Backbone:
């Protein structure tokens, strides 16, 4: 008679105790700072080795086509007048619907004009909008060397 | 008869009768009741439902290291309103194979049952829609009525998950209603009335006049009874850890899987209304209702009969219980069906009976 009653009481006690124990764990979180990053307004700090959208230094490029040749998905298209030091780049398009961010294009470049950048977000209403022409000097994504690249989605939202 | 319990509806009805130049009679009093009902829906349903959803989401977010809604309006305050507009604008789908009449009717039963409970709540001295002699009994029977709506929804959906959900609800109701009722009988026995106003008035004064600590000695029976009522109340509101009828990880959404648009909203809002009304009834039964801990609202106190002071304390206690229900939901995992049965039949029921006997003994001894 007494033993089942003792088991019962122990059960009830452990039920109450574990409930309070659970609350002891969860309740302090209410007063803790949330971990969430308010993404389009706040951007994460990424390591320098982040392989995001490319940074392209158009003044260094000699239109040798090495990057386009090594690209496994064939996403780089270069059009230029002349070659070598006097090359004038007419078009340097990277098709981000294809690009797999493998960074192979950065390896063979003799002038080190193409790098992987920190930008990871790119939005567009059509597929054409995510084909970026880095030869277009008006393009905010074209990198001249020392300025940071604006975050495309973030800048879009701020407008 | 109509309008006697609600003087406001009688006045409104007579006013409308005067407007149209017809003799006041029962049709206008019925119209007055409708007007009062729609006013209550506007004033009670909207803030309770929307505010409850917002609070729950915000608190859940913080408990999980997130922020919760913060996009719509300042601090995301308008999120619930936006969701409500979305629900209203959505298509009302009655799928092929459903029992259309029952399917359409079920949400109204749930909605009505959950919101009718507010009628008997004593918010402050003299502020009660209907001071029924059987207040607590009326409230408990409304909870039972809600179950019928849920069974209707589950059955008419013609969906196995819905049916399983509503069957679980039935199994749960049968289990939790007994301890809920018996635990509620302890304060009723002590106060000698079933009217919530009467029970609240019985607890007038400072914290040792409240039911849960009445004269100190009553705590022996009332503290366990309070815990039982609170636990069974969680089950009645279908809140975690007793959210078996919904069980989104197992049954999609349980009994309301097939509902869309505002019909879904009519299952969703009553959940929060029920949480709030159960918290309020727990307050009225055990925690002294609208009396403050120092007894300032009691006889001879500085705030005797003060509406705002009393309402503030009633609201504060109810909100604390409401928040604790939310906190528990995001803390405890869902119980299995057999665990619910064990808890209700083998733990809560015997314990509530012991409480009842103890209360009776205490009453007998003076």
Residues:
């Amino acid at each position: 008679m007494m033993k089942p009653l003792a088991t019962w009481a122990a059960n009830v006690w452990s039920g109450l105790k574990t409930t309070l124990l659970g609350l002891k764990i969860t309740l302090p979180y209410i007063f803790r700072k949330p971990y969430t990053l308010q993404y389009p307004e706040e951007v994460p700090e990424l390591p320098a080795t982040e392989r995001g959208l490319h940074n392209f230094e158009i003044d260094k490029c000699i239109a040798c086509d090495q990057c386009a040749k090594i690209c496994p998905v064939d996403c780089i298209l270069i059009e230029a007048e002349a070659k070598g030091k006097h090359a004038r780049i007419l078009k340097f398009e990277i098709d981000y619907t294809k690009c797999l961010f493998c960074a192979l294009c950065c390896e063979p470049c003799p002038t080190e004009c193409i790098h992987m950048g920190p930008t990871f977000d790119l939005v567009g209403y059509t597929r054409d909008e995510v084909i970026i022409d880095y030869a277009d000097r008006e393009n905010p994504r074209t990198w001249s060397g020392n300025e940071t690249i604006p975050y495309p989605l973030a800048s879009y939202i701020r407008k | 008869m109509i309008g006697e319990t609600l003087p406001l509806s009688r006045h409104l009805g007579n006013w409308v009768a005067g407007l149209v130049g017809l003799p006041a009679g029962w049709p206008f009093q019925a119209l007055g009741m409708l007007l009062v009902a729609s006013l209550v829906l506007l004033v009670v349903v909207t803030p309770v439902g929307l505010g409850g959803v917002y609070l729950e989401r915000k608190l859940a977010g913080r408990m999980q290291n997130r922020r919760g809604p913060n996009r719509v309006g300042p601090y995301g305050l308008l999120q619930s309103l936006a969701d409500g507009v979305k629900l209203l604008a959505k298509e009302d789908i009655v799928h092929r194979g459903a029992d259309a009449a029952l399917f359409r009717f079920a949400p109204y039963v749930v909605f009505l049952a959950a919101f009718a409970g507010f009628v008997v709540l004593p918010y402050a001295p003299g502020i009660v829609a209907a001071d029924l002699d059987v207040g607590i009994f009326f409230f408990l029977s409304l909870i039972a009525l809600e179950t019928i709506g849920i069974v209707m929804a589950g059955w008419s959906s013609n969906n196995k998950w819905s049916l399983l959900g509503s069957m679980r609800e039935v199994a749960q109701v049968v289990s939790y209603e007994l301890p809920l009722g018996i635990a509620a009988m302890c304060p009723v026995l002590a106060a000698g009335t079933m009217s919530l106003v009467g029970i609240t008035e019985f607890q007038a004064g400072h914290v040792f006049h409240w039911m849960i600590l009445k004269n100190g000695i009553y705590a022996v029976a009332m503290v366990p009874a309070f815990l039982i009522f609170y636990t069974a109340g969680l089950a009645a509101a279908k809140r975690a850890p007793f959210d078996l009828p919904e069980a989104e990880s197992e049954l999609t959404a349980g009994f309301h899987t097939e509902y869309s648009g505002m019909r879904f909203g009519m299952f969703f809002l009553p959940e929060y209304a029920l949480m709030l009304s159960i918290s309020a009834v727990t307050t009225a039964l055990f925690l002294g209702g609208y009396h403050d801990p120092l007894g300032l609202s009691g006889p001879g106190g500085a705030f005797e009969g003060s509406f705002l002071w009393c309402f503030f304390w009633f609201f504060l206690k109810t909100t604390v219980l409401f928040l604790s229900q939310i906190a528990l939901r995001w803390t405890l995992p869902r119980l299995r069906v057999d665990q619910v049965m064990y808890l209700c039949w083998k733990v809560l029921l015997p314990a509530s009976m012991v409480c009842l006997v103890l209360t009776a003994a205490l009453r007998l001894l003076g």
User: Anything to note?
Assistant: The first helix of chain A runs from residue 2 to 30. The longest strand of chain A covers residues 88-95. Confidence is low (pLDDT under 50) at residues 144-159 of chain A.
